[in-house]
Amino acid sequence: MFKKKEEKPFVSAVIPAAGSSRRMGEDINKLLLLIDGIPVLARTLLSFQNNENIDEIIVVCRESDILGYAELCKSFSISKVSQIVRGGNTRTESVLCGVKACSDKSEFIAIHDAARPLISQDIITNVINDAINYGAAAPLVACKDSIKRVENGFIVGDVKRDSIAAVQTPQIFKSDIIKKALQNAKDNNLSLTDDCAAVEQIGISVYVSKGDYKNIKITTPEDIELAQTLLKEV
Protein backbone atom coordinates (compact mmCIF):
# COMPACT_ATOMS: atom_id res chain seq x y z
CA MET A 1 0.00 0.00 0.00
CA PHE A 2 1.28 3.48 -0.81
CA LYS A 3 1.55 6.04 1.99
CA LYS A 4 0.03 8.93 0.07
CA LYS A 5 -2.58 8.74 -2.62
CA GLU A 6 -0.74 11.25 -4.81
CA GLU A 7 2.35 9.02 -4.80
CA LYS A 8 0.53 6.13 -6.43
CA PRO A 9 1.50 5.65 -10.10
CA PHE A 10 -0.91 4.31 -12.72
CA VAL A 11 -0.22 0.58 -13.02
CA SER A 12 -1.51 -1.65 -15.82
CA ALA A 13 -1.55 -5.43 -15.67
CA VAL A 14 -1.12 -7.43 -18.87
CA ILE A 15 -2.28 -11.04 -18.61
CA PRO A 16 -1.07 -13.22 -21.53
CA ALA A 17 -3.70 -15.95 -21.99
CA ALA A 18 -3.02 -16.92 -25.59
CA GLY A 19 -0.79 -19.95 -25.07
CA SER A 20 -1.65 -23.53 -25.90
CA SER A 21 -2.36 -26.24 -23.31
CA ARG A 22 -0.56 -29.10 -25.02
CA ARG A 23 0.63 -30.73 -21.80
CA MET A 24 -2.95 -30.91 -20.55
CA GLY A 25 -3.91 -33.10 -23.53
CA GLU A 26 -7.18 -33.50 -25.41
CA ASP A 27 -7.33 -29.84 -26.46
CA ILE A 28 -8.22 -28.78 -22.92
CA ASN A 29 -8.08 -25.05 -22.16
CA LYS A 30 -6.32 -25.15 -18.80
CA LEU A 31 -7.40 -21.59 -18.03
CA LEU A 32 -11.01 -22.73 -17.80
CA LEU A 33 -10.32 -25.64 -15.46
CA LEU A 34 -11.80 -25.19 -12.00
CA ILE A 35 -9.91 -24.73 -8.76
CA ASP A 36 -12.39 -24.99 -5.91
CA GLY A 37 -15.21 -24.09 -8.30
CA ILE A 38 -13.57 -21.05 -9.92
CA PRO A 39 -11.79 -21.11 -13.33
CA VAL A 40 -8.02 -20.65 -13.31
CA LEU A 41 -8.23 -17.47 -15.40
CA ALA A 42 -10.91 -15.95 -13.17
CA ARG A 43 -8.77 -16.56 -10.08
CA THR A 44 -5.80 -14.89 -11.75
CA LEU A 45 -7.80 -11.86 -12.87
CA LEU A 46 -9.50 -11.50 -9.48
CA SER A 47 -6.10 -11.29 -7.80
CA PHE A 48 -5.34 -8.15 -9.82
CA GLN A 49 -8.92 -6.86 -9.63
CA ASN A 50 -8.66 -6.92 -5.83
CA ASN A 51 -5.27 -5.20 -5.61
CA GLU A 52 -5.74 -1.48 -5.00
CA ASN A 53 -2.49 -0.63 -6.79
CA ILE A 54 -3.71 -2.02 -10.14
CA ASP A 55 -5.65 0.45 -12.28
CA GLU A 56 -6.44 -1.59 -15.37
CA ILE A 57 -6.11 -5.12 -16.72
CA ILE A 58 -5.44 -6.10 -20.33
CA VAL A 59 -6.10 -9.72 -21.30
CA VAL A 60 -4.31 -11.11 -24.36
CA CYS A 61 -5.77 -14.24 -25.93
CA ARG A 62 -6.64 -16.08 -29.12
CA GLU A 63 -9.34 -14.42 -31.19
CA SER A 64 -11.60 -17.43 -30.68
CA ASP A 65 -11.48 -16.92 -26.89
CA ILE A 66 -12.27 -13.20 -26.74
CA LEU A 67 -16.05 -13.48 -26.36
CA GLY A 68 -15.81 -16.32 -23.86
CA TYR A 69 -13.30 -14.47 -21.71
CA ALA A 70 -15.44 -11.33 -21.85
CA GLU A 71 -18.35 -13.35 -20.47
CA LEU A 72 -16.09 -14.77 -17.76
CA CYS A 73 -15.08 -11.25 -16.69
CA LYS A 74 -18.74 -10.23 -16.58
CA SER A 75 -19.72 -13.31 -14.56
CA PHE A 76 -17.09 -12.61 -11.89
CA SER A 77 -17.50 -8.79 -11.91
CA ILE A 78 -13.92 -8.19 -13.02
CA SER A 79 -14.42 -4.52 -13.86
CA LYS A 80 -10.76 -3.51 -14.23
CA VAL A 81 -10.42 -5.43 -17.51
CA SER A 82 -10.45 -2.56 -19.98
CA GLN A 83 -9.56 -4.56 -23.10
CA ILE A 84 -9.31 -8.14 -24.31
CA VAL A 85 -7.01 -8.17 -27.32
CA ARG A 86 -5.86 -10.74 -29.84
CA GLY A 87 -2.34 -12.06 -29.34
CA GLY A 88 0.46 -12.60 -31.84
CA ASN A 89 2.31 -15.62 -33.17
CA THR A 90 4.73 -15.82 -30.23
CA ARG A 91 4.54 -15.02 -26.53
CA THR A 92 6.70 -11.94 -27.05
CA GLU A 93 4.39 -10.66 -29.78
CA SER A 94 1.34 -11.37 -27.63
CA VAL A 95 2.72 -9.48 -24.64
CA LEU A 96 3.68 -6.60 -26.95
CA CYS A 97 0.07 -6.49 -28.17
CA GLY A 98 -1.06 -6.21 -24.57
CA VAL A 99 1.50 -3.57 -23.68
CA LYS A 100 0.48 -1.45 -26.68
CA ALA A 101 -3.15 -1.67 -25.52
CA CYS A 102 -2.34 -0.18 -22.11
CA SER A 103 -3.61 3.26 -21.21
CA ASP A 104 -1.50 6.27 -22.14
CA LYS A 105 -1.53 7.05 -18.41
CA SER A 106 0.27 3.82 -17.59
CA GLU A 107 3.56 4.41 -15.76
CA PHE A 108 4.28 0.79 -14.86
CA ILE A 109 3.20 -2.44 -16.52
CA ALA A 110 2.88 -5.74 -14.67
CA ILE A 111 3.03 -8.86 -16.85
CA HIS A 112 1.63 -11.98 -15.24
CA ASP A 113 1.08 -15.52 -16.51
CA ALA A 114 -2.64 -16.27 -16.76
CA ALA A 115 -1.87 -19.77 -15.48
CA ARG A 116 -0.57 -18.54 -12.09
CA PRO A 117 -3.86 -18.24 -10.19
CA LEU A 118 -2.45 -18.38 -6.65
CA ILE A 119 -0.52 -15.11 -6.82
CA SER A 120 -0.84 -13.29 -3.49
CA GLN A 121 -1.70 -9.66 -2.85
CA ASP A 122 1.57 -9.19 -0.96
CA ILE A 123 3.68 -10.38 -3.89
CA ILE A 124 1.85 -8.12 -6.36
CA THR A 125 2.27 -5.08 -4.11
CA ASN A 126 5.88 -5.82 -3.19
CA VAL A 127 6.97 -6.27 -6.80
CA ILE A 128 5.20 -3.03 -7.76
CA ASN A 129 7.09 -1.18 -5.02
CA ASP A 130 10.40 -2.72 -6.11
CA ALA A 131 9.72 -1.75 -9.73
CA ILE A 132 9.01 1.83 -8.63
CA ASN A 133 12.34 1.91 -6.81
CA TYR A 134 14.45 0.15 -9.45
CA GLY A 135 12.57 0.47 -12.76
CA ALA A 136 12.24 -3.29 -13.24
CA ALA A 137 11.53 -6.12 -10.79
CA ALA A 138 10.49 -9.77 -10.77
CA PRO A 139 9.80 -12.35 -8.03
CA LEU A 140 12.24 -15.24 -7.70
CA VAL A 141 12.50 -18.27 -5.45
CA ALA A 142 15.59 -20.30 -4.62
CA CYS A 143 15.96 -23.73 -6.20
CA LYS A 144 15.55 -26.41 -3.54
CA ASP A 145 16.73 -29.40 -5.57
CA SER A 146 20.29 -30.19 -6.58
CA ILE A 147 20.85 -29.02 -10.15
CA LYS A 148 23.01 -31.02 -12.56
CA ARG A 149 24.45 -30.46 -16.02
CA VAL A 150 23.52 -33.26 -18.41
CA GLU A 151 25.08 -34.28 -21.73
CA ASN A 152 24.04 -37.24 -23.87
CA GLY A 153 21.92 -38.69 -21.09
CA PHE A 154 24.60 -38.57 -18.38
CA ILE A 155 25.34 -36.20 -15.50
CA VAL A 156 28.53 -34.27 -16.24
CA GLY A 157 28.66 -31.78 -13.40
CA ASP A 158 26.99 -29.70 -10.72
CA VAL A 159 25.42 -26.27 -10.91
CA LYS A 160 25.78 -24.22 -7.74
CA ARG A 161 22.34 -23.54 -6.32
CA ASP A 162 23.35 -20.20 -4.83
CA SER A 163 23.91 -18.82 -8.34
CA ILE A 164 20.50 -19.74 -9.79
CA ALA A 165 16.84 -19.12 -8.97
CA ALA A 166 13.43 -19.78 -10.49
CA VAL A 167 11.72 -16.66 -11.83
CA GLN A 168 7.98 -16.14 -11.45
CA THR A 169 5.48 -13.46 -12.38
CA PRO A 170 4.30 -10.72 -12.15
CA GLN A 171 7.32 -9.12 -13.79
CA ILE A 172 6.89 -5.37 -13.52
CA PHE A 173 8.61 -2.61 -15.47
CA LYS A 174 8.45 1.09 -16.20
CA SER A 175 6.25 1.40 -19.26
CA ASP A 176 8.89 2.88 -21.54
CA ILE A 177 11.38 0.15 -20.59
CA ILE A 178 9.16 -2.82 -21.40
CA LYS A 179 7.82 -1.25 -24.60
CA LYS A 180 11.35 -0.69 -25.89
CA ALA A 181 12.49 -4.15 -24.77
CA LEU A 182 9.63 -6.07 -26.40
CA GLN A 183 9.85 -4.10 -29.62
CA ASN A 184 13.58 -4.83 -29.76
CA ALA A 185 12.91 -8.53 -29.18
CA LYS A 186 10.33 -8.61 -31.95
CA ASP A 187 12.46 -6.63 -34.42
CA ASN A 188 15.43 -8.93 -33.86
CA ASN A 189 13.43 -12.18 -33.75
CA LEU A 190 14.81 -13.00 -30.31
CA SER A 191 13.67 -16.27 -28.78
CA LEU A 192 13.08 -15.43 -25.11
CA THR A 193 11.55 -17.34 -22.23
CA ASP A 194 10.23 -14.35 -20.31
CA ASP A 195 10.00 -10.57 -20.24
CA CYS A 196 13.00 -10.11 -17.95
CA ALA A 197 15.13 -11.58 -20.74
CA ALA A 198 13.81 -8.95 -23.14
CA VAL A 199 14.71 -6.17 -20.72
CA GLU A 200 18.16 -7.64 -20.10
CA GLN A 201 18.77 -7.58 -23.86
CA ILE A 202 18.60 -3.76 -23.84
CA GLY A 203 21.07 -3.52 -20.97
CA ILE A 204 18.74 -3.00 -18.02
CA SER A 205 19.07 -5.03 -14.83
CA VAL A 206 16.00 -6.48 -13.15
CA TYR A 207 15.73 -6.28 -9.37
CA VAL A 208 15.13 -9.55 -7.52
CA SER A 209 11.93 -9.48 -5.45
CA LYS A 210 10.94 -12.19 -3.01
CA GLY A 211 8.83 -14.86 -4.70
CA ASP A 212 6.42 -17.41 -3.29
CA TYR A 213 6.61 -21.19 -3.71
CA LYS A 214 2.80 -21.29 -3.76
CA ASN A 215 2.77 -19.09 -6.88
CA ILE A 216 2.79 -22.14 -9.16
CA LYS A 217 2.10 -22.22 -12.88
CA ILE A 218 -0.67 -24.57 -13.98
CA THR A 219 0.88 -26.75 -16.69
CA THR A 220 -0.21 -30.35 -16.11
CA PRO A 221 -3.35 -31.99 -14.63
CA GLU A 222 -1.37 -32.67 -11.46
CA ASP A 223 -0.90 -28.93 -10.98
CA ILE A 224 -4.65 -28.48 -10.58
CA GLU A 225 -4.60 -30.96 -7.71
CA LEU A 226 -1.60 -29.21 -6.18
CA ALA A 227 -3.32 -25.83 -6.48
CA GLN A 228 -6.39 -27.22 -4.72
CA THR A 229 -4.17 -28.35 -1.85
CA LEU A 230 -2.24 -25.07 -1.65
CA LEU A 231 -5.45 -23.07 -1.69
CA LYS A 232 -6.58 -24.82 1.48
CA GLU A 233 -3.35 -23.74 3.18
CA VAL A 234 -3.77 -20.05 2.37
UniProtKB/TrEMBL annotation:
Enzyme Commission identifier(s): 2.7.7.60
Function: Catalyzes the formation of 4-diphosphocytidyl-2-C-methyl-D-erythritol from CTP and 2-C-methyl-D-erythritol 4-phosphate (MEP).
Gene3D superfamilies assigned to the protein according to its UniProt record, in alphabetical order: Spore Coat Polysaccharide Biosynthesis Protein SpsA, Chain A (3.90.550.10)
UniProt xrefs under InterPro entries: IspD, IspD/TarI, IspD/TarI_cytidylyltransf_bact, Nucleotide-diphossugar_trans
Record's keyword terms, sorted: Isoprene biosynthesis, Nucleotidyltransferase, Transferase
NCBIfam families, alphabetized: ispD (TIGR00453)
Transition state stabilizer, annotated site positions: 23, 30
Pfam families: IspD
Species annotation: Candidatus Butyricicoccus avistercoris
Catalyses which reaction(s): 2-C-methyl-D-erythritol 4-phosphate + CTP + H(+) = 4-CDP-2-C-methyl-D-erythritol + diphosphate
Pathways involved: Isoprenoid biosynthesis; isopentenyl diphosphate biosynthesis via DXP pathway; isopentenyl diphosphate from 1-deoxy-D-xylulose 5-phosphate: step 2/6
One MF term in the entry's GO annotations: 2-C-methyl-D-erythritol 4-phosphate cytidylyltransferase activity
Group of enzyme by EC: transferase
Protein name: 2-C-methyl-D-erythritol 4-phosphate cytidylyltransferase
The family this protein is said to belong to: Belongs to the IspD/TarI cytidylyltransferase family. IspD subfamily.
Site residues, Positions MEP for the nucleophilic attack: 161, 217
HAMAP family named among the record's database cross-references: IspD
GO biological process: one example: isopentenyl diphosphate biosynthetic process, methylerythritol 4-phosphate pathway
